[in-house]
Every structure is written in structure tokens, then in C-alpha cells.
TrEMBL record:
Keywords: Membrane, Transmembrane, Transmembrane helix
Organism of provenance: Lithohypha guttulata
Annotated stretches, region: Disordered: 1-27
Top-level taxon in the UniProt lineage: Eukaryota
Membrane topology: Multi-pass membrane protein
Protein name per its UniProtKB record: Amino acid transporter transmembrane domain-containing protein
Compartment(s) of residence: Membrane
Transmembrane helix among keywords: yes
Segments passing through the bilayer: 59-84, 90-110, 138-160, 166-186, 198-219, 247-268, 280-302, 322-347, 368-389, 395-415, 427-449
Residues of the Amino acid transporter transmembrane domain: 60-452
Pfam families (alphabetical): Aa_trans
Family in the record: Belongs to the amino acid/polyamine transporter 2 family.
Length: 480
């Protein structure tokens, strides 16, 4: 295809000083040979991306949709029917839509901020711009901890699925170890562009499993947890009167369902055309929100207070096996993707500015595999060793997930627009940003409190679960 000089510059012009002999650096940051063939791309984050090395700028806008959806669907979707049971169907849907709107704006700000500040790769770079070195290290630690715990939750989810499908065919600790190996091996694929096809598989599988249960509960006479004799009428509630603790915990679960936001920094940084980010975001958020509403309303309508959490257990043992059989690849992809994103952050911190980042050198591979191994093994230890893991994941989601989905994005808008003219639009922007910051802080504090109370109640009831347990966990509530 003929390349326009408008896009790439004058290919016949003499190379500028400092350029490689026989090559030309176009205004778009791409280097071309004298014959017009692209030989490298210079990126503000990754440096010069050359032929033969990992291509860190190879995610198309459709691949971006898949990656965005997979970081969200699977985090909290299976607990949404139980959230509606806690809040009541109408208040639950109102809160869900409110959180969807706020997090969509936050996600949008990620793309806008990236286009304004091309050297930003992760939320730690945002912290550096906003608060200096302390902000950088604070948000970097929060980012890694959050995704390590999500990777641990994914490993636990895989073990639940394997137990369900195999009728507890092996010790649960073995299944968690298998999940760790899956996360490490496929999470070590070098680029998100190469992982994006897995994201499509994961999205399709998790949606198939979830919608299988959604259809099944509508066709069955009653949910599996309901009394199996007599007339059954679903006791769903349009409104409910939960305690403050239960309400805050339910709201945190909804935030957790949309908590893919911090990963969007990494995704937009690897897009071929970051200008297409908003298009991908709107498709992602529309599909995710519609899916959440459909699953939540239908499953809760037919199951009422007998809804299971995770929701895949609501239609009985056979349907649970079928649903988890479909969903298992999706759970695996979730673990792979979050392991990759956390490890890639560490790789950038260690090799940024070095040619080893984009060359397949021994140091590159040793560092990259060391990062994925560290994330995988840490997540495995957390998933296996800490009692009351579900409550702990809720705590981390409320404390760290909310912290990365609300407050920084309000601060990002203020950072970029504070010095602009004081117009009506400016005042509305300031008011909205302040609302996002304050609401995020409230949900963070309230959700953390509710999660702590939930962990204490769990210990008071059964003392938690044992470390490296062999017990079947497919009949208990795992992380959503």
C-alpha cells in the first residue's frame, strides 16, 4: 500500500542528523528504510521497538475491547445477583448504573491523560506527575498488590472450577498449584498484542458459562438451594433494608466488578493507535454493563434469597459442572492477563530506558520470566495460605481497587485543567472531579470497614479455612 507523506513525512528527504544511515524517522515516531519499509517504532514508554524484538505496540482496537472486557467480566460478575439480594433489585440497579457511569468516566480519563502525557505507562507515572516520587512509589505498590491479590483470586476460582467439574477429583491444593503453573506459563507471553486472542477466548467462555446458568434458572422449577418440596415462589425484593455494613460491602462488590481501570493504562500503552481507545472503551463498558444487568436481574428474579454466590452454583450440581466447564478457560485467562499486567509493570520499572527492554537478550528474558514467576508464586502463596481468603480479597478490592478507580482520575482532570479559564464548563468539571474523589474515598473507607467486619464474622462462625487445604471448595463462596 502506498504510504502518504502526510502520515509518514517525506520518505525521499535526507535523513536528519543522528538518524541511522539509509533510514528515516517519520513524524509519527516510526523509522523507515530508504525503500519505505518500517523497521522500527520509537515509543515514549518502550523506546525503540525493532524488528525481531517484542512488539509492544501491536494491540488493535478490537483486541483492546477484548482485553478491557476480560479485566472486568470475571472480577465480580458472579456476585451481582447476591448484591441485588442485599440491596434490593431497584436500589441495586441504581447503584450499579451509578458506579458504571463513574468508572466509565475514570476509564475515559485514562485514555485522555495518556494522549496528553505520552510517557505515562502506569498509574505510578500518574502518581509521579501528581505527587512526586512518593506518589510514584505509593501507587506502584498499590498497583502490584492489587493485581497480585486478583491473580490469587483467579487461581482460587480455577481450583473451584476444577473441583466442580471433577467432583473433587484431587486435593484442592493441587488444583491451586495447577492454576499457578497456567498463570506463569501463558502469562509469560511477552506482549498484550499476542495475548489479545486469549482474551477473546476468555470472554466468550466466561459469558457462555454465565448465560448457561442464567437461562437454566429461568427454565428450572426452583433454584438448587430452595426447598425441593411444595410450591416455590421466588422471594426477590424490589427494595431491601440492609445494615450499613452489608450495604457498603455490596457496593464494594460492584466497584470490584468494574475494577479493571488500573489495567487500562497498560492496555492503551500497547495500542497501535491510542486515539482509538475511546471507541474501544465505549463498546466494552456498554457490553459489560448490559451483561451485568441481564445476569443480575434474571438470576435474582428466579432465585430470590436462594441465589448462590458465586452464581454458577444456583442451578444445581449438573448445571454447575456444565457452567464451570464453559467458564474454566475464562477463569484461566483472567489469571493469565492479570499476572501479565503486574509482571509487565515490574519489567518496565527494571528495564525502562535500556535496550534490553525491546531486545530478546538474556537479560530481557531472565528479568521477564523472573517478574512473571514472582507474581505467580506470590499470588499462589496468598491463595493457598491465608484463611478467609474470600473476605480478604473483598478487603483488598475495597481498599486498593477503589483507590485506583476513583480518586486518581479526579486528580488527573484537576491536574490538566486547573489553570484553564474559569468558565461554567470548568466549574462543572471541578465539581464532578471533586465528587468522584469524595465518593471514592467514602466507598473505600466504608467498603474496607464492611470487609473487616465480614472477616471477623467468618472467624467467629467457623474460624476460617485452613492453609493449603485439600477440602472441596466448590460448594463454598469463592471470590466473585
Amino acid at each position: 500500500m502506498e504510504k502518504s507523506t502526510k502520515e509518514f513525512g517525506d520518505l525521499n528527504a535526507a535523513p536528519p542528523p543522528g538518524s541511522r544511515r539509509g533510514s528515516y524517522m517519520a513524524p509519527d515516531g516510526r523509522r523507515y528504510s530508504a525503500q519505505g519499509r518500517r523497521i522500527s517504532t520509537v515509543d515514549d514508554v518502550f523506546g525503540e521497538i525493532k524488528e525481531g524484538g517484542p512488539n509492544y505496540r501491536d494491540v488493535g482496537w478490537l483486541g483492546t475491547v477484548a482485553l478491557m472486557m476480560k479485566t472486568q467480566i470475571g472480577l465480580g460478575v458472579l456476585s451481582i445477583p447476591a448484591v441485588l439480594d442485599t440491596l434490593g433489585m431497584i436500589p441495586g440497579l441504581i447503584v450499579l448504573l451509578a458506579i458504571a457511569i463513574i468508572t466509565t468516566w475514570s476509564d475515559y480519563m485514562v485514555g485522555v491523560f495518556k494522549l496528553r502525557h505520552r510517557s505515562v505507562y502506569g498509574i505510578d507515572d500518574v502518581g509521579m506527575l501528581l505527587f512526586g516520587p512518593i506518589g510514584r512509589e505509593f501507587f506502584g505498590v498499590v498497583f502490584v498488590l492489587f493485581w497480585i491479590f486478583v491473580a490469587g483470586a483467579g487461581m482460587l476460582g480455577i481450583s473451584i472450577g476444577l473441583n466442580a467439574v471433577s467432583s473433587h477429583g484431587a486435593c484442592t491444593a493441587i488444583f491451586v498449584a495447577v492454576a499457578c503453573v497456567i498463570g506463569f506459563s501463558l502469562g509469560s507471553i511477552q506482549t498484550l498484542g499476542a495475548v489479545s486472542w486469549l482474551a477473546w477466548v476468555g470472554v466468550a467462555c466466561i459469558l457462555t458459562g454465565i448465560f448457561t446458568v442464567t437461562v437454566a434458572v429461568g427454565l428450572q422449577d426452583r433454584p438448587s438451594a430452595a426447598p425441593q418440596t411444595g410450591v416455590f415462589v421466588a422471594d426477590y425484593k424490589l427494595f431491601n433494608n440492609p445494615s450499613i455494613t452489608d450495604a457498603l460491602t455490596a457496593c464494594s462488590s460492584l466497584v470490584f466488578a468494574y475494577a479493571g481501570t488500573p489495567a487500562f493504562f497498560s492496555i492503551v500503552s500497547e495500542m497501535r493507535e491510542p486515539a482509538h481507545y475511546t471507541r474501544s472503551l465505549m463498546i466494552c463498558q456498554s457490553v459489560v454493563t448490559a451483561t451485568y444487568i441481564c445476569i443480575g436481574v434474571v438470576v435474582y428474579y428466579f432465585c430470590g434469597t436462594y441465589v448462590a454466590s458465586p452464581a454458577l452454583g444456583s442451578a444445581g450440581v449438573l448445571l454447575k459442572k456444565i457452567a464451570y466447564g464453559f467458564a474454566l478457560p475464562g477463569l484461566c485467562v483472567t489469571t493469565i492477563l492479570v499476572t501479565h499486567i503486574a509482571a509487565k509493570y515490574l519489567l518496565l520499572r527494571l528495564l525502562r530506558g535500556s535496550y534490553h527492554l525491546t531486545d530478546n537478550t538474556f537479560r530481557h528474558w531472565a528479568t521477564w520470566l523472573g517478574c512473571t514467576a514472582f507474581i505467580s508464586l506470590t499470588a499462589y502463596v496468598i491463595a493457598s495460605a491465608i484463611p478467609v481468603f474470600g473476605g480478604l480479597v473483598s478487603l483488598v478490592g475495597a481498599l486498593l481497587g477503589t483507590l485506583m478507580c476513583f480518586q486518581p482520575m479526579g486528580c488527573m482532570w484537576l491536574y490538566d485543567h486547573w489553570s484553564e479559564a474559569r468558565t461554567t464548563k470548568w466549574y462543572l468539571g471541578v465539581a464532578w472531579s471533586a465528587f468522584v474523589i469524595l465518593s471514592g474515598t467514602f466507598l473505600m473507607i466504608g467498603g474496607t470497614y464492611g470487609s473487616v467486619v465480614s472477616i471477623m464474622d467468618s472467624y467467629a462462625t467457623d474460624g476460617g479455612t485452613s492453609a493449603w487445604s485439600c477440602a472441596d471448595n466448590s460448594n463454598s463462596a469463592g471470590p466473585g
